[in-house]
Amino acid sequence: MTIDYLVLGLGSTTGYFGVEGASEHSFSFRTREDAIALGRHLRDYLQRASQTEDI
């Protein structure tokens, strides 16, 4: 999996604007627990990336 962009959107409602796959591949950002889950996910992927050899 390659991540090209990180988009953080703040607002009172979650809207995907018709982007296919957005709801399946995104994190809701409404509660403290949501923010913690996002942080954990990002740390996990950064750890994996740091252990990957460059091609």
Account of the 3D structure:
The chain is an all-alpha fold. It has one domain. 35% of the residues lie in helices and 0% in strands. It has one helix and no strands. The protein has one helix at residues 32-50. The protein starts with 31 loop residues before the first helix and ends in a 5-residue tail after the last helix.
Distance between the termini: 15 Å
Gyration radius from CA atoms, angstroms = 13 Å
Element order: H for helix, E for strand: H
Helix content: 25-40%
Task: Jot down its keywords.
flat; mainly alpha; 55 residues; single chain
Characterize this entry briefly.
This protein is an all-alpha fold and 55 residues long. The chain has one helix at residues 32-50.
Q: Would you spell out the secondary-structure blueprint of this structure?
A:
Blueprint: H1 32-50
